[in-house]
Design a protein that fits this description.
Helices cover 39% and strands 15% of the residues. The radius of gyration is 17 Å and the shape is globular. The protein has one domain (2-193): Rossmann fold, CATH 3.40.50. The chain is α/β, with parallel strands linked by helices. The longest helix has 22 residues, at 54-75. The chain is built from seven helices and six strands; from the N terminus they run E-H-E-H-E-H-E-H-H-E-E-H-H.
Length: 194
């Protein structure tokens, strides 16, 4: 049994998945499962020819990476290589990659409905994503932090609400360490495995 975790944009190869509470817990709770962490790998991100200090260069590269990853998710998600899995877990833009696969999925901090509503106003390839999500054969658990400004209800999912974090940024990131969320994800994986 294989679980693939798809983090949001901006999480890249330098993130150590073994330090993330959710992943540590899942590896302990499901030793029979292979748990893979997806890396957003944008080594093709251009570095602007500006003479910035180290911090500004890092911040600029991070922002460029986030924009490129997000654009790829919205315009050509099927071109992004995602490993095959039995269950997908996705956060933020990674949630969109999780729910377009026709496998059981658990998503949190998902902007899917927000993006869908914005793109419905234009002719865009997001129609493909909408079609894939609305014609799924497998269940989706959508975990929503009530304080997270990017997380929205998904009509075709089981929506679970909780409150955590201090402000909008911490609310969007708290899923990875929130005890309630980790318990809910564990419970749902056990259900999927049965």
């Amino acid at each position: 049994m294989k679980i693939v975790i798809l983090p949001g944009v901006g999480f890249h190869i330098h993130t150590n998945p073994n330090k993330i509470q959710l992943i540590k817990h899942l590896k302990k709770a499901f030793p029979q499962c292979s748990i893979d962490y997806f890396n957003w790998d944008n080594q093709h991100v251009p570095t602007p020819p500006l003479k910035d200090n180290w911090l500004i260069k890092k911040a600029r590269a991070f922002i460029i990476e986030v924009i490129k990853d997000f654009d790829a998710v919205c315009t050509k998600p099927l071109d992004i290589f995602v490993p095959e899995a039995d269950i997908y877990i996705g956060h933020s833009a990674g949630s969109i990659l999780a729910i377009i696969r026709n496998k059981p999925a658990i998503v949190f901090g998902s902007p899917y409905s927000l993006i869908r509503d914005l793109y419905l106003r234009t002719e865009n390839s997001f129609d493909t994503i909408k079609m894939l999500v609305e014609h799924r054969n497998y269940p989706v658990l959508n975990i929503i932090n009530k304080k997270d400004l990017l997380a929205y209800h998904i009509d075709s999912a089981e929506n679970y609400y909780f409150k955590g974090g201090f402000g909008p940024i911490s609310a969007h990131l708290t899923y990875w360490s929130n005890k309630t969320v980790i318990e809910k994800i564990t419970e749902k994986i056990k259900h999927y495995l049965n």
